[in-house]
Design goal:
This protein is α/β, with parallel strands linked by helices. The protein is built from 9 helices and 8 strands. It has a single domain, classed as TIM Barrel, CATH 3.20.20. The longest helix is centred in the N-terminal third of the chain and has 18 residues. Bound molecules: pyridoxal-5'-phosphate.
Amino acid sequence: MTDPAQALRDVQSRIDHAAKIAQRRADAVTLIAVSKTHPADAIVPLIAAGQRVFGENRVQEAQDKWPGLREAHAGIELHLIGQLQSNKADDAVALFDCIHSLDRSSLVGALAKAMDKAGRQVPCFIQVNIGAEEQKGGCAIAALPALLAETRAAALPVIGLMCVPPLDIEPAPFFALLDKLADDHGLAGRSMGMSGDFETAVMLGATHVRVGSALFGTRE
Ligand SMILES: *Cc1c(COP(=O)(O)O)cnc(C)c1O
């Protein structure tokens, strides 16, 4: 693997370039460094290089890794990008600064309750099953208006939409669709784009890109 600081500069400059082409401000895009499966030792160099926003897909793994890292490094912002079970809502609200995987009714209730109890508002993205894939998480596009209404009734802080497009197909139409849905619902945030396609996502309006392997190398 190349030098993590170099990898970070490369990814950031690719984001900047894509933003420039799309006549967007590069600082309108937050780079989330997805550190899932990587140990603290692999994360520290990125923190040292200035990265502060990280993403994890499992509550338990994040609980094991991040309290120590946060004690040693100020200003860390942690995003949950993976599926969340309702019975982990309290843990997720305590640990994460943003949740990208709100995708069903039962989680609306669980998260609202957890945030009330903790006295802590954690911004959420609604994950949309943008390619209508059977095995994939995310709310169906047709179910989005009702789910959004529920989040509003529960006063959950929803800041945008998130998607993971189908593998091995050109992702641009899916990103464009998520952008349109967010627009339609008056939501500013678009969490879309991973190592293989974040430049396309930035050109199509991503406000948050979730990049793992381009920063950390391939996972086991
Ligand atoms: C793992 C993961 C990523 C990062 O994937 P890379 O291809 O390694 O950049 C982004 N989003 C989600 C939801 C993930 O699970």
